Amino acid sequence: MENYFDIKVENELSYGRGYVYSLQYHIVWCTKYRKQILVGDIEKRLRVLLLWLAEEYHFEIQAMEVMPDHVHLLVKCKPQFYIPDMIKIMKGNTARRLFVEFPEMKAQLWGGHLWNPSYCVVTVSDHSYEQVKHYIDMQKEK
Predict the structure, then answer these.
(1) Identified catalytic residue from 4, 21, 33, 135
(2) 135 among known catalytic residues
(3) Which of the chain's termini has less CB crowding within 10 Å, N or C?
(4) Helix or strand holding residue 134 (H, E)
(5) Looking at the DSSP assignment, which residues form a beta bridge with residue 66?
(6) How far apart are CA 50 and CA 52, in angstroms?
């Protein structure tokens, strides 16, 4: 029988006040109507905004790929984060700022919404971390 103290953990553990954790999530969300508008300067600015939000709200984006009609993120965060709130912050802030900086986007989106209201979140284990990271990193090459 294997001794559980000898199990190697792939990802680094993080430490809080009175707790230890390793929480990673693969998050995906799409543009409204799957419009392919996340290209060029809009894509570049979205990347900058997402990294800024990660710094501002103290979570870490470990992998990111912006496709023309959807976003993939591998996010590491504290256990105190309520994932729906974090996604709401990312989607709301990026939409508001992108509409201000690129007003021509609204003409391409019926109703003036950038993001589809739904999203996908999958927990990432220490065993699947590298596989998910590779999957996100290879999105553009598909």
Answers:
(1) 135
(2) yes
(3) N
(4) helix 129-137
(5) 71
(6) 5
- 3-state SS assignment for residue 102: coil
CA distance 49 to 66: 12
What local confidence, expressed as pLDDT, does residue 98 receive?
A: 97
Q: Which amino acid is at 13?
A: L
Q: What is the 3-state secondary structure (H, E, C) of 33-91?
A: HHCCCCCHHHHHHHHHHHHHHHHHHCCEEEEEEECCCEEEEEEECCCCCCHHHHHHHHH
- The residue written with tokens 């994932």 in the block is 83
- What is the average pLDDT score of the chain? 88
Smallest CA-to-CA distance from 25 within 136, 139, 104 is with 136
Kindly provide the b/e burial profile for residues 85-115, where b requires at least 16 CB atoms within 10 angstroms of the residue's own CB: ebbeebbebbbebbbeebeebeeebeeeebb
Sign of CA dihedral 126, 52, 57, 84: negative
